[in-house]
Amino acid sequence: MTQVVRVGGEAPYDVRIGRGVLAELDTLVPAVVRRVAVLHQPTVASVADRIAAGLAAPNREVSLFPLPDGEAAKTVATAANLWDGLASAGFTRTDLIIGVGGGAATDLAGFVAATWLRGVDVVQVPTTLAGMVDAAIGGKTGINLDAGKNLVGAFHPPRAVLCDVGLLATVPPADYAAGLAEVIKTGFIADPVILELVEADPAAARTPAGPHTEELIVRSVAVKAAVVAADLRERIGTQLGREVLNYGHTLGHAIERREQYRWRHGDAVAVGLVFAAALARHAGLLDDATAERHRRILSAVGLPTRYPKEAWPELRAAMAIDKKARGSTLRFVVLEAIGRPRILADPDPAVLEAAYAEVAE
Ligand SMILES: NC(=O)c1ccc[n+]([C@@H]2O[C@H](COP(=O)([O-])OP(=O)(O)OC[C@H]3O[C@@H](n4cnc5c(N)ncnc54)[C@H](O)[C@@H]3O)[C@@H](O)[C@H]2O)c1
Ligand SMILES: O=C(O)C(=O)C[C@@H](O)[C@H](O)[C@H](O)COP(=O)(O)O
Ligand SMILES: [Zn+2]
């Protein structure tokens, strides 16, 4: 059965979730679309082929653009190659880009769609857990620089997102676990049932064949949809808006940069979540048990919760370029309790160091 989560706001669209929803793609592409560019990861070339076959029509040209795998796709060079490819294909404003793959592919496809002719439509077909629960939804698109993660990008909501849960069967276990970091993040910021479902049977949560896979996806998507509908462009206001989705990412992105994007995003976020919980605890905001629950649940699904001690000065410096920072003020998403996130601005250096000591090994 297809479940549909509507993402409201200035440009509403549906996220369609279920086994086999990919078959619905052709009904979402209007006849007026004469050219379709399918940007896909090499691991899901067969999915891209199916999409191309399904969209074939008289007077329509469907082109496949294979991407470098993983974070290697999120570069200026890849984007520039694709811009050249779209130019050669004569891609116009009524044409369509489809992003197929994990979050790296949907981030890049969204970015190319946002920038080509200053914006053409994109439909996202995420094929990993991180892609389905987070990356393909909400219109945050972007590429990395040596200086930091996702530093260049645009807010460009998709026209539709198709999460075909059947496609998860081939995702390597470590990549699937990395996606669980975003699911667990979502549980801590807004939906404790997610945490309960994972904790009840962590081994089952680690596989797409588990009994709660669809429920975990739908719950995570519902939280993200509500946040994005209220604050697409991550404006700072008196209420905590989209920044809440960045829980665990301040240190996480610094780790990714230090690892030159060879660590999985979800692995880095997992360490970042444990750090953020420790930060809240040392700032006197969060109780010990909830902080400890972060490490326990992340470890239970096989995610890392520690990082080398000697990395701290480099990580501390890298965090200064986090998008939530303002001037020289570091701003972290922290919890006062499960489902009660807030911003902690400019924490005392001693508090930061004490929090890092808890993830250091
Ligand atoms: N824009 C956002 O809001 C947002 C949210 C979360 C994450 N992200 C970004 O998403 C990226 C992480 O996404 P990810 O974890 O999906 O990683 P990824 O895109 O690198 O994919 C992980 C691996 O899985 C492979 N793969 C994808 N689908 C597969 C399938 N069905 N079967 C077999 N292999 C498959 C990929 O080829 C890759 O090797 C990061 O760049 C992160 O910054 C963005
Ligand atoms: O959608 C959002 O907003 C998020 O912050 C979701 C994050 O999981 C995601 O990794 C995002 O790309 C991070 O955004 P950034 O603005 O810190 O680059
Ligand atoms: Zn993330």
TrEMBL record:
<keyword id="KW-0862">Zinc</keyword>
<dbReference type="InterPro" id="IPR030963">
    <property type="entry name" value="DHQ_synth_fam"/>
</dbReference>
<keyword id="KW-0963">Cytoplasm</keyword>
<dbReference type="InterPro" id="IPR030960">
    <property type="entry name" value="DHQS/DOIS_N"/>
</dbReference>
<dbReference type="GO" id="GO:0009073">
    <property type="term" value="P:aromatic amino acid family biosynthetic process"/>
</dbReference>
<keyword id="KW-0547">Nucleotide-binding</keyword>
<keyword id="KW-0028">Amino-acid biosynthesis</keyword>
<feature type="domain" description="3-dehydroquinate synthase N-terminal">
    <location>
        <begin position="66"/>
        <end position="175"/>
    </location>
</feature>
<protein>
    <recommendedName>
        <fullName>3-dehydroquinate synthase</fullName>
        <ecNumber>4.2.3.4</ecNumber>
    </recommendedName>
</protein>
<dbReference type="InterPro" id="IPR016037">
    <property type="entry name" value="DHQ_synth_AroB"/>
</dbReference>
<dbReference type="Pfam" id="PF24621">
    <property type="entry name" value="DHQS_C"/>
</dbReference>
<feature type="binding site">
    <location>
        <position position="249"/>
    </location>
    <ligand>
        <name>Zn(2+)</name>
    </ligand>
</feature>
<comment type="similarity">
    <text>Belongs to the sugar phosphate cyclases superfamily. Dehydroquinate synthase family.</text>
</comment>
<feature type="binding site">
    <location>
        <position position="265"/>
    </location>
    <ligand>
        <name>Zn(2+)</name>
    </ligand>
</feature>
<feature type="binding site">
    <location>
        <begin position="127"/>
        <end position="128"/>
    </location>
    <ligand>
        <name>NAD(+)</name>
    </ligand>
</feature>
<dbReference type="GO" id="GO:0003856">
    <property type="term" value="F:3-dehydroquinate synthase activity"/>
</dbReference>
<dbReference type="InterPro" id="IPR056179">
    <property type="entry name" value="DHQS_C"/>
</dbReference>
<feature type="binding site">
    <location>
        <position position="182"/>
    </location>
    <ligand>
        <name>Zn(2+)</name>
    </ligand>
</feature>
<keyword id="KW-0456">Lyase</keyword>
<dbReference type="GO" id="GO:0046872">
    <property type="term" value="F:metal ion binding"/>
</dbReference>
<feature type="binding site">
    <location>
        <begin position="69"/>
        <end position="74"/>
    </location>
    <ligand>
        <name>NAD(+)</name>
    </ligand>
</feature>
<feature type="binding site">
    <location>
        <position position="140"/>
    </location>
    <ligand>
        <name>NAD(+)</name>
    </ligand>
</feature>
<dbReference type="GO" id="GO:0008652">
    <property type="term" value="P:amino acid biosynthetic process"/>
</dbReference>
<keyword id="KW-0520">NAD</keyword>
<feature type="domain" description="3-dehydroquinate synthase C-terminal">
    <location>
        <begin position="179"/>
        <end position="325"/>
    </location>
</feature>
<dbReference type="InterPro" id="IPR050071">
    <property type="entry name" value="Dehydroquinate_synthase"/>
</dbReference>
<dbReference type="GO" id="GO:0005737">
    <property type="term" value="C:cytoplasm"/>
</dbReference>
<keyword id="KW-0170">Cobalt</keyword>
<comment type="pathway">
    <text>Metabolic intermediate biosynthesis; chorismate biosynthesis; chorismate from D-erythrose 4-phosphate and phosphoenolpyruvate: step 2/7.</text>
</comment>
<dbReference type="GO" id="GO:0009423">
    <property type="term" value="P:chorismate biosynthetic process"/>
</dbReference>
<keyword id="KW-0057">Aromatic amino acid biosynthesis</keyword>
<keyword id="KW-0479">Metal-binding</keyword>
<dbReference type="Pfam" id="PF01761">
    <property type="entry name" value="DHQ_synthase"/>
</dbReference>
<dbReference type="GO" id="GO:0000166">
    <property type="term" value="F:nucleotide binding"/>
</dbReference>
<feature type="binding site">
    <location>
        <begin position="103"/>
        <end position="107"/>
    </location>
    <ligand>
        <name>NAD(+)</name>
    </ligand>
</feature>
<feature type="binding site">
    <location>
        <position position="149"/>
    </location>
    <ligand>
        <name>NAD(+)</name>
    </ligand>
</feature>
<comment type="function">
    <text>Catalyzes the conversion of 3-deoxy-D-arabino-heptulosonate 7-phosphate (DAHP) to dehydroquinate (DHQ).</text>
</comment>
